[in-house]
Specification:
This protein is α+β, with helices and mostly antiparallel strands and about 150 residues long. Helices cover about 35% and strands about 20% of the residues.
């Protein structure tokens, strides 16, 4: 495991907020010359500390109006059912996030669709077809209050 120092944490803070920052500007902000700065970033990438760089798209701007949180319970927590669910759910582009959970449900999904009809088709044509599902419970988000992509380093 890579041992991170204060400079690494500063790099991570800045990259989380400004993913497209140039190496020159990053080096300037952390008060390091460009070559050692780039070496550190490459090492953070190689070690998997920085997973990838993305552009965040506003869902409503591209027509995705439904943001649903779906609790899924399985008939059994046997490895066979868990594997089937995890393999199938990863294929569905409507699922933007999926977590194995503790508590009253086995999985929590975040599903984004253009409208309620598209969400209904997702549930009927895809989700309910997965072997081993016992219960599906959906809550629809009315509006986002806090959305952070940065972790508090």
């Amino acid at each position: 495991m890579l041992k991170l120092d204060k400079i690494d944490y500063n790099i991570l803070r800045i990259i989380q907020a400004e993913g497209r920052i140039s190496n020159l500007n990053l080096a300037d902000k952390i008060r390091l010359s460009p070559s050692p700065c780039l070496r550190r970033v490459k090492e953070l990438e190689k070690e998997g500390v920085i997973k990838k760089y993305v552009g965040l798209v506003e869902p409503k701007a591209v027509g995705f109006l439904i943001n649903a949180f779906v609790n899924v319970s399985l008939q059994s927590q046997k490895e066979r059912f868990l594997n089937i669910f995890e393999q199938k759910i990863s294929l569905y582009e409507e699922v933007s996030e999926c977590y194995l959970m503790t508590g009253s449900s086995d999985y929590l999904l975040r599903v984004v669709t253009r409208d309620l009809e598209e969400y209904e088709r997702f549930v009927i044509d895809k989700l309910t077809k997965i072997e081993g599902i016992a219960n599906i419970q959906t809550s629809f988000a009315l509006k986002p209050l806090v959305q952070r992509t940065e972790i508090p380093i």
